[in-house]
Specification:
Elements lengths: L5 E5 L2 E10 L12 H11 L6 E8 L4 H13 L3 E11 L1 H6 L4 E3 L5 E3 L4
Parallel strand pairs: 2-3, 3-4, 4-5, 4-6
Antiparallel strand pairs: 1-2
Length: about 120
């Protein structure tokens, strides 16, 4: 299974984690594999009892149902979440950003929101 996300603990702080969502939120790795939504949740829980989560996003969007599941999973988590838009957060990737408590975007980054 090829994941479109990567979780990791921060080396200098055991109560902090990182999530990288780079590339398309892909239908091909979400559908047809019943384990994948559980795997995303399991990967997040694998960080342990973190207090903060930095989420780095550079995505054109992708499958809306996969994105909504990611949004809901992050929103339910107890950690304080900061979304960092490194390049773009378009379509459903912009929805995932809304799960964060804070969104940070440099001036040259882009967020594109549209009616689904």
């Amino acid at each position: 299974m090829k994941k479109f996300w990567k979780f990791q603990a921060k080396a200098n702080n055991p109560k902090a984690g990182e999530l990288t969502l780079y590339g398309e939120i892909s239908e091909s790795s979400w559908w047809g594999d019943e384990v994948t939504p559980r795997q995303f949740k399991s990967d997040l829980e694998g960080l342990g009892d973190i207090e903060t989560l930095d989420m780095y996003i550079n995505s054109p969007g992708g499958d809306v149902f996969a994105g909504l599941s990611i949004y809901n999973t992050i929103k339910r988590h107890n950690a304080t979440v900061t979304a960092h838009v490194d390049g773009r957060a378009a379509s459903v990737a912009s929805i995932i950003c809304m799960a964060a408590d804070k969104i940070a975007m440099p001036e040259n980054a882009e967020m594109m929101i549209h009616n689904a």
